[in-house]
Amino acid sequence: MDSNWRLIPLMDGAGELHMAIDRWLLNQQQPCLRFYTWQPAAISLGYHQRQWPQHWRSISWRGQPIDLLRRPTGGRAVLHQGELTYALITPVGQGSRRAVYQALCQFLILGWRRLGITLDFGTARGRDRDSPDCFGTATAADLVTPAGYKLIGSAQVYRQGYVLQHGSMRLQPSAELFERVFGSAIASPPLPPHLKQLTLEQQHMLIEDALTEAAAACFEVILQARPLSVVEISAAQAWAKKATNLTC
């Protein structure tokens, strides 16, 4: 594994932009870790997900339509609101996908343990085919608390010996919006008191720092902070558009 990784600091943006950047970074085959938030709020579909409620196209949140888009990774739909998303790209060697998940998720387990939450892998054998909600089931790709609350849902895609793994970490989800999207209730994340008292933006900064330190320790790498340049963002958008056109 490369001992030098790029750290792309927290950035806010539209879902289509984030997916374009993730796909472009995977194509660049450059080990990196990044964090991002979604503006406006969005529902991302798994790459192979072909069915979803039609009312999702007409939902608004805080005066803005909810974005509906597709991820390059698998799984079911994720509501991106009141959360923090991470993404990492790294080369992979031999081993099953489950083994890769278990190896890459160690930095999440360590970082969140330092923040006061113990996490372990889900035990469900597969996702509920009748539910469009990714967080409705916790498989071996997901991380749950001892009480069974799914805090982090992750998904992967592989390209030419590299893997993109990204995932959503629930922090302050809106129960009202979640019920409008999925038609069911959502419990508040069981965050420790020192995290609950913070604003969402403060939580983002604290979690980003904890997970960055954990990634450096778990993967034995040096993370060098370097934001995406305007040129790189434009290249990511152009590459994603070209790739989409070629696969239509």
UniProtKB/TrEMBL annotation:
Is-annotated flag, keyword Ligase?
A: yes
Q: Which domain of life is it from?
A: Bacteria
Alphabetized UniProt keyword annotations: Ligase
**Annotated Gene Ontology MF terms?**
ligase activity
Q: Which CDD domains match?
A: LplA
Database matches in PANTHER family: OCTANOYL-[GCVH]:PROTEIN N-OCTANOYLTRANSFERASE, OCTANOYLTRANSFERASE LIPM-RELATED
Species this chain originates from:
Vasconcelosia minhoensis LEGE 07310
Q: What is this protein called?
A: Lipoate--protein ligase family protein
Say yes or no: keyword Ubl conjugation present: no
Q: Where is the BPL/LPL catalytic domain?
A: 27-219
Name the Gene3D superfamilies on file: Bira Bifunctional Protein, Domain 2 (3.30.930.10)
Q: Which InterPro entries match?
A: aa-tRNA-synth_II/BPL/LPL (IPR045864), BPL_LPL_catalytic (IPR004143), Octanoyltrans_LipM/LipL (IPR050664)
